[in-house]
Specification:
The complex is a heterodimer of chains A (344) and B (323). Chain A has one domain: MetI-like (MetI-like fold). Helices cover 64% and strands 0% of the residues of chain A. Chain B starts with 40 loop residues before the first helix and ends with a helix. The relative contact order of chain B is 0.12. The chains are: A mainly alpha (344), B mainly alpha (323). Chains A and B meet through helix 1, helix 2, helix 4, helix 5 and helix 6 of A and helix 1, helix 2, helix 5, helix 6 and helix 7 of B. Chain B: InterPro entries: MetI-like, MetI-like_sf. Chain B: This is Carbohydrate ABC transporter permease. Chain B: It is found in: Cell membrane.
Chain lengths: 344, 323
């Protein structure tokens, strides 16, 4: 990364008074003392260059190598690799299994964050400002209880979640069909939730959403608590309904958190490897839950086509970047970045 | 990532004024589900907690369904942990175990599954990588927020990029790097990977950092404090809520991580908590009741940590998240 030497060169230069800070933090003085000292330079070097070094070695350099591997026919088991240019990528375009996986991952990237965020905001609203008591802003009764419960799933390792839910969905002795037949839906007695093309994806998505809600509820609870209570009081004075308050006040004010959550959730959903591998290692009925990361894993470790698999990885990275770009774009277009007025 | 929430001008004047008068300003309950009962506000106030049948019913029913969804699968795991192999195979998943004092599965998980070794390894990895993550994260946040330098946006962009590149993309190459450094099959493999790839905590620190007034550093600087002193004596103590947040979030993620230990530390002696659970997936079919017992053992420390650190997590995320 060329930035490293560039930074080092600047660390002892006079800081530019006009440097634009990332993000706007108005009201904070940006005046710096124009003093170059050994103290400053040395601390700066350690504080920034050490993290950057770790980062370059373990994050950037593997990525650069991955891009190179993706243009070879490397099998992974020998040192031989021939440069094949973009052949792997051309091959991917005609690979139906891969295209199916792309479609599934894209579907996950849209549905999982949307559902998770909607539910997490709903729960967070209820436990923070949804209460019906007089006095200060507070949540529904037992808010602490719900908050803790909603966090439970986050404490369970993802792989365990996948395996537990595979048991829950089990056609003959699973919990779900047991409950459904118990309430009189006898038709569901042997329904294979993960083995039917119509339900496999939805059932898998439910599990992924289930595992994420707790953490994002915590995140949104924290964000809502940062909103001054007077704003809610004012809204109430103006006669805003509760739904409208949630949509017009809560969401715009925690907008940055929502956007960040969207990106992290999307990335996690596009990957989904652990969950899918635990529930349907083969990719599900008719490959209906097969995702790019599973294809990559199979291609690399079962078929011994590391070059081709890495090309899939590069495509996966591009899909993720595209996803993040879309989220930022939508955020910008819908009025984020200025203030909440445009949205309210 | 740029921040946009600046001064939060909510401009309530823009909202359509509604003639419905007389709401107590001290009440706020924007629950998203029940849009209707605005008019009930007064009734709520007067007759709480008995009234507003609809609002309360919808609210609590939805919460209870959510609680059931969150808990029932975990309850079935908990119950299964006490069941014998035959009992597990034949009984209903939600039926209570015949003998609550059947701790056989826990014993087996602990001894044959090597969970003790797993806990030791996990603790070591967790402690070292958390300390590393916090040092790296706080230093980076301090450098990026308090120093002016031209490559700052570039550095932030690079860090952001790293969050966006999926781990699987770089897996093969990362493996080569780890192997090349001679870290394969050592605890250091997991430790450096957990430290080097953690961008989220840098963000949490950075956002929290912005809420610490610069005047504090400047005052200390006038008193002749060096940057290191400012960092160690002012910044780090003030970042404590953010550190608690990172400890819990990152801690749980490391604790639950299955893939990195599985791939980089295959040696049996280096098994961690999450990989030790899978010793019972064995060639003769999974021993579910033992996996369930192991899962219970694995979850307990996380839950305790969350309950103890809850308050700090919220305050850490609040200051960090809103800016």
């Amino acid at each position: 990364m060329s930035g490293t030497s560039h930074l080092a060169a600047h660390s002892d230069a006079t800081p530019s008074a006009t440097a634009v800070p990332p993000g706007n933090t108005p009201g904070q003085g940006r005046r710096r003392r124009r003093r170059i000292s050994f103290d400053k330079a040395s601390f700066f070097a350690v504080a920034l260059l050490l993290p950057l070094a770790v980062y370059v070695v373990f994050v950037i350099s593997p990525f650069v190598q991955a891009v190179y591997f993706s243009m070879t026919d490397w099998s992974g088991f020998t040192a031989d690799m021939a440069f094949v240019g973009l052949d792997n990528f051309a091959r991917l375009l005609g690979d139906e299994k891969f295209l199916r996986a792309m479609l599934n991952s894209a579907l996950l990237a849209v549905v999982v964050p949307t559902v998770t965020i909607a539910i997490a905001i709903a729960v967070a609203t209820m436990v923070t400002v949804g209460g019906s008591t007089t006095g200060g802003v507070r949540g529904v009764r037992g808010a602490g209880f719900y908050r803790v419960i909603s966090f439970f799933p986050y404490c369970v390792p993802a792989i365990v979640i996948g395996l537990v839910w595979a048991q829950v969905y089990d056609p003959s002795r699973g919990l779900l069909n047991g409950v459904l037949t118990g309430i009189g839906l006898d038709g569901m007695a042997d329904f294979p939730w993960l083995g039917d093309t119509r339900t496999a994806m939805a059932a898998s998505m439910f599990v992924i959403v289930w595992s994420f809600i707790g953490f994002y509820t915590v995140l949104f609870v924290a964000a809502i608590k940062g909103v001054p209570g007077e704003i809610y009081e004012a809204a109430r004075l103006d006669g805003a309904s509760r739904f409208r308050t949630a949509v017009s006040i809560t969401v715009p004010l925690i907008r940055d958190n929502v956007r960040t959550a969207w990106i992290y959730l999307g990335i996690a959903a596009i990957d989904s490897f652990v969950y899918m591998q635990a529930m349907n290692p083969g990719g599900g009925p008719g490959y209906s839950t097969f995702v790019i990361s599973q294809d990559l894993y199979q291609t690399a470790f079962s078929k011994g086509q590391f070059g081709y698999a890495t090309a899939m990885g590069v495509v996966l990275a591009l899909v993720t970047l595209l996803f993040a770009a879309v989220v930022f774009l939508v955020d910008r277009v819908t009025g984020g970045g200025d203030d909440v007025r445009g949205h309210a | 990532m740029t921040d946009h929430t600046t001064e939060q001008p909510v401009s309530l004047e823009n909202r359509r004024p509604r003639p419905a008068a007389g709401h107590d300003p001290a009440r706020h309950d924007p629950a998203p589900r029940d849009a209707g009962p605005r008019r009930l506000t007064r009734a709520w106030q007067a007759l709480r907690p008995l009234t507003t049948p609809l609002g309360i019913a919808v609210k609590y029913t939805s919460l209870l369904i959510a609680v059931a969804c969150a808990l029932i699968p975990l309850v079935s795991v908990f119950l299964a942990a006490f069941k014998s192999h035959e009992e597990f195979a034949t009984s209903d998943p939600l039926a209570p175990p015949g003998n609550w004092f059947n701790l056989e599965n826990f014993v087996v998980a602990f001894t044959r599954g090597g969970m003790l070794q797993g806990f030791v390894n996990t603790t070591i990895i967790l402690a070292v990588s958390l300390v590393g993550t916090i040092l790296i994260g706080t230093m980076t946040a301090y450098a990026v927020d308090r120093f002016e330098f031209r490559g700052r946006r570039l550095v932030m962009g690079a860090f952001l990029l790293a969050t966006l590149v999926p781990a699987v993309t770089t897996q093969v190459a990362t493996f080569q790097v780890v192997n090349g450094l001679g870290l394969f099959n050592t605890r250091w493999a997991a430790i450096v990977l957990f430290m080097g790839t953690d961008i989220v905590s840098i963000y949490i620190f950075l956002q929290f950092m912005r809420s610490i007034p610069r005047s504090l550093d400047e005052a200390a600087m006038l008193d002749g404090a060096s940057r290191l002193t400012i960092y160690a004596r002012i910044i780090v103590p003030l970042l404590r809520p953010a550190i608690a947040t990172v400890v819990i979030i990152k801690g749980i993620a490391i604790y639950n991580e299955y893939y990195i230990p599985f791939l980089y530390m295959p040696s049996r002696d280096l098994g961690v908590v999450s990989t030790s659970l899978f010793r019972f997936m064995g060639p003769f079919g999974a021993q579910w009741e033992i996996i369930c017992a192991g899962t219970v053992l694995v979850i307990i420390p996380t839950l305790i940590a969350f309950l103890l650190l809850q308050r700090q997590i919220y305050s850490g995320l609040t200051s960090g998240a809103t800016k």
